[in-house]
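Regression report. Comparing outputs from two consecutive submissions.

Submission 1:
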Amino acid sequence: MRELVRQLMAGQNQFASGGLVLVLIGGAVAWLRQIPSQLWHWIVSQSTMTITVKDEDVAFRWVKEWFLEQKFLKRVRWLDLDTTLRGAELAMIPAPGRHRFFRGRRPFWVWFYRSEETKAGPSRRMESLTFRTIGRDTRVLREFVREIVACHHSKHRVASYLYVYNDGWECVDAYSPRLLESVLLKPGEKEHLLADLQRFRASRERYRKLGVPYHRGYLLYGPPGTGKTSLVSAFAEKLGMSIYAVNLTEMNDRTLKTAMNWIPEGSVVLFEDIDCMRAGHRRQSPGTEEKPQPVAAAGQNDAVAAMLGVTLSGLLNVLDGFHAPENVIFVMTTNDVDALDPALLRPGRMDYKLFMGRAAESQKAELYRRFFPEASEEAAREFAREHRAETMAEFQGLLIALEQEFAELETLVRG
């Protein structure tokens, strides 16, 4: 090889030596042309700061909420329509690409990336937002992040949303919260429950001084159709709290802990039909002999845990153990309270219990007058006595059918 190079350089093969010289010169020129670009990138990296948030993080939605509150959005001319932020109301946010804005007197650039990636299964759109600003002091970025978090919390306190877990918390766009006035309970029950909730929310400092975990549990139990879920939706809307609905039949201990870690403060954690938990076996009573359970072989633990679902110990751990979130309200609903393990019902886990049973005459009469405001109190009570519906859901179905009959009759009369 060295002999060949020496021959080429000695000019014994002028064509080859000339080509080699051109290659060397071209390589040197190409390298020299890259120096300004590399120098520019080095200067940018040393004089700016960047922060990125991906769509798999809950903060991605917070940033989009923050965009809607910024004045510079009016000057952006490349926009996307988004219905995930304000339900049926269309919201406009910056479209994929690069945008520029000023925060105070500091320039910011934001890159909105969107791509289609195909994994093991259907394709999923991947999105991310990258912010860049001039400077090296990371306190600027911390302040920027605090502003986004404050914007989210301000919205979170005044509006009630519903979230479900699907490899991350997802907002249910079609959710419409119930109004507290529309939920009819026996006299005093609704007022007493609301007073207890408000008293808890005003007692954070007292809990801290006493060294007691700051969360409270509520158990709503009774036959189906008595309005348990509607009551949760109504008081969450009244207090401006969002609901995080947990479906234990689709989780195991690991995914439950992960889900709890991402629940923000000031939220309602709803466990519906807790008696249907697949692995909610009772604990062994003192003095009883515990039957030995087969131990999973190495490498099988994840599969076994997925089949078992959420265990009782895993559930108790997120209610008042190391993985329990702070400043939340736990609500459990059940049709069969006797099917629950006593460990779930003790104070500190379930602090307030409300039985929602058969519909009382006063409840049915009040609901009747909501459907037919012109009816007298006596007429409403007489109708309630004659139609002995077991639950408010059944009685409401009767009223809806009756209202439809009246509407059809009125149409025939007018015709």
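Submission 2:
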Amino acid sequence: MPNIARYESKYLLNYEKYLSIKNDLSPYMEKDKYSTQSPTGSYLVRSLYFDTFDYQAYKDKLDGFFGRTKFRLRCYSSEKESLKSISVEIKTKTGNTVEKYTSPVPLEYYDYFMENWHWPEYTTPVLIDFERSVLLRILTPVVIVEYQREGMCDYLGDGVRVTFDHSLKSADCEELFPKNPFFSGHFPEYIVLEVKSREVPPAWLKRIIQRHGLKLVAYSKYVQSIIVSRNDLFSPN
């Protein structure tokens, strides 16, 4: 059960700013192994988010609730046949500190869970907590979010990871692999930069952020997915 505790900050970039920042990061960072292995230099991320019937997770974010938890299933391909496993994730956020608990499961576990709301076998505490939360809080899958991720990690061992997320979009779906999802784009003119570090970002990274005048944004992929894909629930005609 990998447990990743880190600080996270997010910024919205236009394409010109993206190229400039990536160039400034090159003396300190290199592409991560996932981006390097891809012929395009980026890889697909698709997540299925769960929420209550009255969208409590969505409301908690809008209301600025200090401690928030997200439940999602994640994969790295839109083609189910190409996958052997998916990730079960529980992500908590308190202020700027994020903890992510992850457990990979075989693809057949996903199929079984989506039909029975129960894992065929408990192999990690993440699966136990995920199932308990789904049943007790009556969580259901509400939306998928998909994007192309370009990841970088630092040379110096400072524990810094930077990701550029391109072509963000979401669809009103109740499964990870719908046949013909109708996607809606998120800010198509922007790229989302996420800075993740175990401690306060190092001085070299702070200088790059300040040099480009980057401003923190309270951007949530899940919230934006609800706004663009399920807006009828909150802004009925």
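Expected: both submissions complete independently.
Actual: both completed, but the second showed a warning that disappeared on reload.
Relevant detail on submission 2: The chain has a mean pLDDT of 90.
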